[in-house]
Amino acid sequence: MPKMKTKSGAKKRFKITASGQLKREKAFKSHILTKKNRKRKRNLRQSTLVAAVDVKRIKRVLGKA
Fold this sequence. Notes:
Blueprint: H1 8-13, E1 14-16, E2 22-24, H2 38-45, E3 48-49, H3 55-61
Antiparallel strand pairs: 1-2, 2-3
């Protein structure tokens, strides 16, 4: 059986940390920024970890499961 291909969209959106956790960027930072306050936009800049319930599914599309 051949190896499973990595989904290109997932490859661009997620990174695996050294400890094996999944890192992602936050959404809602691309447009309509005038109505969002300064604090909210600043918090959207930081990356965060993927929720525990989604890790198994995302690792599968990355070909790591």
